[in-house]
Model the fold of this input.
Amino acid sequence: MNTDLFAYTLRLGDDALVAAQRMGEWIANAPQLEEDVALGNIGLDQLGQARSLLSYAAEIEGAGRTEDDLAYLRDEREFTNLLICERPNGDFAVTIARLLYFATYQHLLYDALQGSSDETLSGVAGKAVKEVAYHVDHATQWVLRLGDGTEESHRRMQAGLDQLWPYTGEMLASDDLVGRLAGVAVDPSGFADEWHRRVRDVIETSTCAAPEASYQHTGGRDGRHTEAMGYLLAELQHVARSHPGATW
Done:
């Protein structure tokens, strides 16, 4: 087994899986019917990415596990997703702030990953980058609408942007794993400046203020998560763990 490739593929799959779970929580709870559909579709895109990546991770591992095993039968410390993906939805503006930050990251990541020497990762990225471009646009339109809307919508949008800013640094950090996979993986520190430029352009156009530099939370890539992760997994994994081996 290529341990590094397994770990890298798994972390990308975990990001997408956990983000999809959070987005799915908005179905029937969004502020309007068409937004139920929009957020649901974004969640399905993320879930599709997760399935492709986790299936490939299981193939690399070669231990007989499936995408379902990796999604439903691992404990919290075995997940290596970014902390921003697991943070609670909060109000609608908080979710939109997370989508702006995370989708912009994913778009830059997948765009670069298309050039990976690993054909499977390159192929997944080629499809995903088109999906994520829509996610970025959707988040952008809502940030502009809320930020430049009423006094209350502006306040909430600014609060959402500020609340999640301390979780953005982890997305853009390099580590030894991506260093060892040069040519296969993408080092996010290489597009950090572009991420900041894109995000700040949206925020400033919305009349909100770009959050100030602050303490940045880390640990997700090492399996150290926030309190929210345990609750998320309890819901995500409940059926599979309650009925082991069940099929339908």
In short: The domain at 3-215+225-242 is CATH 1.20.1260.10 (Ferritin). Residues 33-61 form the longest helix (29 residues). The chain has a mean pLDDT of 96.
